[in-house]
Amino acid sequence: MRFIVLGAPATKGSVVSFIGATGRVVTKADNQGLASWTQAVGWAARAAGMRCAPRETAVEILATFQFVRPASRRHRVTPTVKPDLDKLARALLDALTGVGYVDDAQVVKLEIAKVYGADARTTVQVTP
Q1: DSSP character for 97?
Q2: Do the beta carbons of residue 38 and residue 26 sit within 8 Å?
Q3: Mean per-residue pLDDT for 38-58?
């Protein structure tokens, strides 16, 4: 199953917990765009006809995170800057939980890359 998510991908950043003014514990994620990107991944996967693989099924994922090269950095061949590839992968694996598989522990092979291209997008292929 192959699908494309248009727009810049979000990362699975750090989560910070602290005691707020009311004395209650407050948990805050450092990436505000993660929820909408996670939703976009789910919708793109469902639109492509993806079905959730049963728990006992192993899953392989091939993903390419494509970014637009900044005009000021035309000499840079590859995106060797943030966002970190591992945080992009974590966000994608979590976004596909419940859509492509029951648990991301089912993923037995993961091939990921960051590249520059004409537009920002994430291309994902999920193979049971």
Answers
A1: B
A2: no
A3: 96
pLDDT in tens, 87-117: 999 999 999 999 999 999 999 999 999 999 9
Q: Which domains does the chain have, with CATH numbers?
A: 2-127 (3.30.1330.70)
CB 4, CB 122: distance < 8 Å: yes
d(CA 118, CA 73): 14
With contact defined as beta carbons under 8 Å apart, do 41 and 5 qualify? yes
Cα torsion through 40, 41, 45, 51, rounded to 10: -120
Nearest alpha carbon to residue 122 among 69, 63, 68, 51: 63
Q: Which run of H or E residues covers position 93?
A: helix 85-96
Count of residues for the chain?
128
Query: For the sheet containing 121-127, what is the strand order?
Result: 2-6, 121-127, 59-68, 107-117
pTM of the model: 0.85
The predicted structure's pLDDT at residue 76? 81
Q: What is the pLDDT of residue 23?
A: 84
Tokens of 117: 């291209």
